[in-house]
Specification:
The complex is a heterodimer of chains A (about 260) and B (about 290).
Chain A: H1 2-29, H2 38-50, H3 59-90, H4 92-107, H5 110-121, H6 125-149, H7 153-161, H8 166-203, H9 209-219, H10 222-251
Chain B: H1 2-14, E1 32-43, E2 52-63, E3 67-71, H2 78-86, E4 93-98, E5 111-114, H3 126-136, H4 144-154, H5 170-183, E6 188-192, H6 200-216, E7 220-225, H7 228-234, E8 237-242, E9 247-253, H8 265-285
Parallel strand pairs in B: 3-7, 3-8, 5-6, 6-7
Antiparallel strand pairs in B: 1-2, 1-4, 8-9
The chains are: A mainly alpha (about 260), B alpha/beta (about 290).
Chain lengths: ~260, ~290
């Protein structure tokens, strides 16, 4: 218990120190047009939530749009990636065919992919979706493929011996063994997705956090620009820690089960 | 009745095809549970002219309700033989027939398998590990609860339903594996050196318990081991296998009355004689 408290205290302290540096720098420069302090930025954030912005919507609207874009693109590339990776792992022909293509996709620089998608699809939601999928899907697929390689084949053989159907094998034997790989892909894929969506919003999509960021950037309003950056960072950190970390600890409950006899 | 039909339909759809000579569902009434005649299996040997013969002209027969062991050195193809019987491995020639118990309505035989290592799904609770095979065998959900409770109690693990395998010792995990195999109410139970990974004391305890368990659930058992004393203690009869070529060279009936104790002089004497026979053949074949 003491270790946990200490851990929390350290985290809070390190963030406090960072804020202190920011505050000190702002005080030294003493020009809110160049670097507003943390307090001013916080006030701007609160104000953005309460009052309609330049497009007549409050920050809730833009955050909602960005989240929707992220989740659709993320879910689509995860599902596609897991499917392709499994197909590669369980089928020889798929493996050979795709192992030639995937390195090509993986080498493509992310930012070029975003520009290509914009050229092909214009400034549309579809462009952002294609850009995310082109970058994230191959990565997830490769991760899944590695996962299938590391699977314990004797368990699948056990399942076959007891006449388990293919879908039962998939649900109870293959997927659980792939969970560590799915989660590590999950984190990376999520990070990539929000970066690409932010980029696409900055360059051309209407509405969203990236769009607002770019809007205020063009106005040269540094307080608002920083406010939107902070909103984005806080939102993504919250998702990472509150949602994914919990999902992960639930998925791996069986590993730490030895300390909680008869636990769930 | 409908459940029974659904079961049959599903089984025939997924039943493995074995070299076009699958007679496992033959259902010939009588006392025989497993009949194997002239079974030969080869693996292509990389770089060699001739295929590697894993099993050479194996013939054996296991009567219903009997405990039969196959004893042989490591690498003699014992596990392959079990896999052929389980229907998960093909063979090249010969005939393999596995029959359902004669007191049951004719259907495909159910085969339970206990492996050398427990092969449990560590991410599922003990209970869900058993549910896995019940679902695989299309046992109606309404029976799951009873089957889990009955079989865990039988292997001495009552109350462990919600526990995870990694919380259990190696011996207890192997007990779960035995409960899992028995839960499908198998016609045939195949056991592949199930105690060889355990320490001597745990193994001894499990052998005793297995004898007791079998008094209640009475499946036919084909048990593979390299341990002659274990085979003599447990079995009604023993087939002895040699390697290079992998063939059966001797069948011994063991008429020592039960309950037995491993220290019984009869068991000890028989083991001694068989050990002598065994090594004279195995060492001669190199």
């Amino acid at each position: 218990m003491a270790g946990r408290l200490e851990d929390i205290a350290l985290r809070v302290a390190s963030i406090a120190v960072l804020l202190l540096f920011w505050w000190a720098a702002a005080a030294a420069i003493n020009d809110s047009q160049v670097l507003p302090g943390p307090w001013a930025v916080a006030q701007t954030i609160v104000q953005d939530f309460g009052t309609p912005g330049p497009e007549g919507e409050s920050a809730f609207f833009d955050i909602g749009i960005t989240l929707a874009r992220i989740f659709i693109a993320f879910a689509a590339s995860m599902v596609a990636g897991i499917g392709i990776g499994l197909a590669m792992g369980l089928n020889r022909a798929c493996e050979r065919a795709l192992l030639a293509v995937i390195p090509l996709m993986l080498t493509m620089p992310t930012i070029l992919m975003v520009f290509l998608a914009i050229m092909w699809f214009g400034y549309s939601q579809a462009g952002a979706l294609v850009a995310v999928m082109a970058v994230v899907t191959p990565f997830v697929a490769v991760n899944m493929f590695e996962g299938t390689r590391a699977m314990d084949k004797s368990l699948a053989q056990m399942g076959t011996t007891f006449r388990a159907s293919r879908s039962l094998l998939l649900r109870k034997i293959y997927l659980p063994q792939l969970m560590p790989y799915i989660f590590s892909a999950f984190r990376y894929a999520f990070g990539q997705t929000w970066k690409i969506v932010a980029l696409a919003e900055t360059f051309g999509l209407k509405f969203g956090i990236g769009y607002m960021f770019f809007f205020w950037f063009q106005q040269f309003n540094i307080a608002q620009t920083l406010a939107w950056v902070m909103m984005f960072v806080i939102l993504m950190l919250a998702l990472e820690h509150l949602v994914f970390a919990r999902l992960e600890s639930r998925a791996f409950a069986w590993r730490s089960a030895s300390s909680a006899q008869g636990g769930r | 009745m409908t459940a029974q039909h659904a079961y049959n339909a599903q089984r025939s759809a997924t039943a493995p095809i074995i070299a076009g000579r699958d007679v496992r569902a033959g259902g010939a009434a009588g006392a025989s549970a497993i009949t194997i005649e002239g079974l030969t299996k080869k693996f292509p040997a990389p770089g060699a002219e001739q295929d590697f013969v894993v099993l050479h002209e194996i013939s054996l027969s296991v009567d219903e309700g009997k405990f039969v062991s196959i004893v042989g050195p490591s690498g003699c193809g014992k596990s392959t033989l079990l896999n052929v019987i389980a229907g998960i491995e093909r063979y090249d020639s010969g005939a393999v027939a596995v029959h359902p118990r004669s007191d049951r309505a004719a259907r495909e035989p159910r085969i339970g398998y206990v492996f050398q290592s427990p092969r449990l799904l560590n991410w599922l609770t003990v209970e869900n590990n058993i549910h896995f095979v019940l679902e695989a065998q299309n046992v109606p959900r309404s029976r799951w609860r009873d089957l889990v409770a009955k079989n865990l109690e039988m292997v001495g693990l009552a109350g462990q339903e919600r526990n995870y395998p990694l919380n259990l010792s190696g011996g207890m995990q192997q007990r779960v594996a035995i409960a899992r195999a028995l839960a499908i109410e198998p016609d045939i139970l195949l056991m592949d050196e199930p105690f060889s990974h355990l320490d001597a004391i745990t193994a001894r305890k499990l052998r005793f318990d297995l004898m007791e368990i079998l008094q209640r659930a009475k499946p036919t058992i084909l048990f593979v081991t390299h341990d002659l004393s274990e085979a003599v203690f447990l079995s009604d009869s023993i087939y002895m296998m040699s390697t290079k070529p992998a063939r059966i060279f001797k069948r011994v009936a063991i008429d020592i009355p039960r309950p037995r104790r491993p220290e019984d002089s009869e068991i000890f004497d028989l083991e001694k004689t068989l050990t002598r026979d065994f090594f004279s053949v195995v060492e001669a074949s190199g």
